[in-house]
Fold this sequence. Notes:
By secondary structure, the protein is of the alpha/beta class.
Amino acid sequence: MKKPTIAIVRGTFLNRFEMQFFEPLITRYTITAFSSLAPYHDAFAFPVIKLPSPMDVPDVPYKMPILNRMFTDAHYLLGLERRLRGFDLVHTAETYFRYTQQCIDAKKKGYVKKVIATVLETIPFNNEGIWGRTAYKKRAREELDHIIALTQKAKESLIIEGADPQKITVIGHFVDTKRFAPKRGWIKDRGNPNKRMFTILFVGRLEEYKGVYDVVAAIDSLARDDDLNNVGVRVLFVGNGSQKRQLMLKTRQPRKNWHLELASATYDEMPNIYARADIFVAPSKPRVNRGKPTWEEQYCTALLEAQAAALPIVTTRSGGIPENVGNAAILIPPGNTKALAVAIKDFLLNPNKRKMYAVRARKRAQTVHDISIGADKLATVYESVL
């Protein structure tokens, strides 16, 4: 029996973080991914077809505002409609991306049978400031055969915008818990009452809205805390972003027994980095323009990897984060550096609490976020749509 054919359209955003839970589906479906000429990643268990896109233009000042106003949305793939001919189902992303409109056009031309989309956005009516995008989103809500919302909050946002609740399924992101795993003896290590040297890990974009300066402020406060005189801490920031140079200056400031470091790493190197850490922090906070939120953390893949690595986690009540971590993390208000410092200190001084949250994190990763669970959920949606 011929396997159904699935096209995954992600443009520049095609990446290994998300595709890892599509890969188990290759035994059930014939999968092909479509990207721009320069996606984040392009090596998977299924082939990738690369098409030219405005997103391939080199980074220059005001690149995205210019491109988005020229194309309504810069996520366009040249010739996509024709290349989708013959697929049983197309799985695209976001209602306002231009290639989602192309996928719907391909369906109207009879090239494909069904089109679904994964939606991450949690802020109702966001991304509608550019002319044409409101119409894009409305058309997608009405003409997509099904929508996968990344979180319940994303589903609620879609419903507020006018989407039919009956054609929305909530499916989060997932992680390979065999690849991202704690080192041997981790339970004993997390609860070690004699531990005096710790590595606190941050992974993500080095940007103000990711809370990187909140981490620095919390660390500066803790470095002066007399209760922590006998504790040595290495704070490791892994990632790149516009604040990297400024953060490098922060790392050079003297702190007793505390050291800040910056590093870049490939995706293949990340499991080992997580395995060597003791505590994970992700103090993301919303971006606001003229009093209105324009972005909030939609899920945070790094939190999935930290859970799989059995790390005690401190993160924020922002966007989709609470749905991601459940009870497997300490949740603090966004932007509250005092609460961040208190939570980190509590983990440093309380081995039983470190152990409890580490066990919760690993259990949640294996029972909620494992890629095999994600693949089954996706297959259920595919079968219902087909």
